[in-house]
């Protein structure tokens, strides 16, 4: 009999956000619009929507689409996170009608669209700086200040002002009403008071039920913060947000690849996640995103030969997977953050790899996001180079194992794996008998689906 969410976690009743049914099977894809195509426009990107839908993507997250500040601008085009006008569209990308057309095309394919929202700060030349200087934070000398010292192209808001809260809520409502978007990815959401998000969410959901993603992780510092500056008790997932970033797992995978932590520390991470949250909560897992790619390095720099096995983990461990622009092209270049730097798609060499994983995620009952009735079972490993698990719900099951060693390994299989399976990457049927071992290639993986 399934264990109830409240029995699993004593604070489960506090997590009141209701996820839409479609989100249970969802994968999210981040779009770096500026560099996605040579044109860098809504219309040019729109041509990729059918490909992404067939790959198994459910949610398309667009990096900020607003006009960019010119004062203190970094690079030739500036950061998309230096917002000059919350009600405008960056002409670099097109028009409001172009955005509407993109959203309509996405909806026709069954895709949802999130806009990236920067509520914590603006560019120096946002009109609000002159119109409402009191809405901003100031230092002891009365000067405007950035939220993080290195973010010299932006200045931070002060949310103690009710008028600012009203303005920002109205701006959020505008894009839902005018462009029919399906939610927001909210930049450094934990630097904005949680009660603002709670109240704004109530108003937004009166227009249409939204999906809200917070750039934050209560298990790991976000947004360039130190551990001392970091708030691990924002409660963003209780009333305001459907999902936050899984930063702690992301950095753990980096550390494993660097031989700074053992592979088995994934178990410690999963235990910390379950101690913090009930299993109904969504965390987003990834090997790259716009910040990671540009500032920390490509997944090939950071993960080396473990790029693909760790991508398998981010899709099949509990949580919602993220694919970043260019990962299906095996992008092995840090994209310029403040300048034009188009991607060379090279006929999408990893399109099939991601399609097989994401379509499995989409269809399989044991892999549903936030499902409190499915089970995660670790498979005992003969050495520290293998990490394997079963995810099963009733008679449906997926077996996943990765090998971080430079030599092939064998994983002993427990009695509950006896039966008929199929390898999702080559469609080969496999009959497992009691006492069998599963061969796993060097720096490789196996993913089997019970049939």
From TrEMBL:
Listed CDD domains: AmyAc_arch_bac_AmyA
Signal sequence residues: none
InterPro entries according to UniProt: GH, GH13_cat_dom, Glyco_hydro_b, Malt_amylase-like_C
Annotated ranges, domain Glycosyl hydrolase family 13 catalytic: 39-361
Pfam (any one): Malt_amylase_C
Top-rank taxon, per record: Bacteria
Name this polypeptide is given: Alpha-glucosidase C-terminal domain-containing protein
